[in-house]
Automatic annotation (TrEMBL):
Residues 8-125 form the Purine catabolism PurC-like domain. It comes from the Bacteria. Residues 460-517 form the PucR C-terminal helix-turn-helix domain. It comes from Kitasatospora setae (strain ATCC 33774 / DSM 43861 / JCM 3304 / KCC A-0304 / NBRC 14216 / KM-6054). This is Putative transcriptional regulator. The lineage of its organism: Bacteria, Bacillati, Actinomycetota, Actinomycetes, Kitasatosporales. Transmembrane segments: none annotated.
Amino acid sequence: MPPTLASVVRTSALHLTVLAGADHLERPVRWVHTSELDDPTPFLEGGELLLTTGIKLGRGAAELQAYVHRLADAGVVGLGLGVGLSHSEVPQALVEAAAQRGLPLLRVPEATPFIAISKTVSAALAAEQYEAVTTSFEAQEELTRAALGKDGTTAIVRKLAVRLGGWAALYDGSGALSAVAPDWAARRAGRLAAEVDRLRRRPAPSSAALQGRAGTIDTADEDYVVVQSLGADRRPRGFLAVGTEDRITPTERYVLNAAVALLTLTLERSRELRQAEERMGAALLRMVLAGEVGTARQVAAGLFGGLPEGTVRVLVAAAGPGPEAAEALGELADRAENAGGKVGEKLLVAREDGAHGPRLTVLALDNGSVHRACLGAVEEHEGLALGVSAPTALEEAGTAQAQAERALAVAQRGGRRTVDHEEVGAGSLLPLLGEEAVTAFAEGLLRPLREHDRTARGDLVASLRAWLSRHGQWDAAAADLGVHRHTLRYRMRRVEELLGRSLDDTDVRMELWLALRSGEE
């Protein structure tokens, strides 16, 4: 802890007397400064104990009050007036002004040189720095040993909580709580979900400090909380939160920074190893999609502990234009891997930059943790689209990939986040087509009929719709319209004349029906 005015006053060799501001002696002293200027504030930074003999101090109460106000506004933590030179005693007006502003005022006897006070504070500051360096080295050694042991990240969290005298919590890249110490702090750590989620959307490393109630949530637990993202390549790999009863001291900050560095290294691993694992996983996925499942099983057994077994799905995700969408695709991959790692669920992931932008292919268990995590991530991030195959066996993964690609194309054309293969294979054709293209087609095809209906007798558009909906049955369609069947036949001949097409042609009927239905969507 830095020296305080109280510790300076308690130094018996200095013979200091407190004349005002006795309730504010716990303020830390960052430096001792001597000045005889009437306004020394341009040369102050705040946190100083200012010493003066008062040579240039005014004698009037207003002047002394203005002097005290200037010092207090500049952040001076205390004023020491040396008596015996300019002033035989401290002026009462100065005592009253200091008491009014809550500025500690010390009487420095003539026998006490200012240099003695400076040396006392300097020695205390040096001791504080030495303690900070010693403590940080000890903490680094202890945390490093914890990182190298079993359950390294959990051990770091436990040691950090003890060192800070509070609690610590570690979250994975998705923001889920993965370790907390002591155990009773789990509820407090859980209240920080919103703050962790905000940091998850910022480039790493970044941090947030919450003074007062943990997570600014209405609770009786008063904590000073710091939340720090962990990552070296702008993408958060995890998050560390610590809570203490008081604000973190500079020494505790060193300890926290050491823990952040070790946790970042542990979570990041080496970049070369991570890239090699990604390449190997992508190669295995390509083997499975190519139908070489037997060979892929043999390779994966020694490197990845095996392949996903049972009913699987293939998910293909694509990002829209812009760097933010590409980062969201990377976060989707992290969410999938974190979800699988948390429950021991096997998956295969491959990233690629194709002609249509970056893509991510995931092979995972049907309705498993990875599957659900991918669906959730896509719903959270605008700019991502996901196509999902039908459930299938691992041996049919190549077919499933084609299904996922078709579903992705439908999602991108329709501006949707997620499309399952089941939606592509069933239901109406209209949702699968680009809305703008269908609208333009319908307007062009039906324009002659609509222009006719605006200027002449006979509702050709409604008559065509009724006739097509009745599959060309004249009597039924005429009854729906409330006209004679000969009238309807006349109208259909006018439709053929205006369109220049024969209604006997099945393709023409299909196009007209599609155009009419698009206007109803």
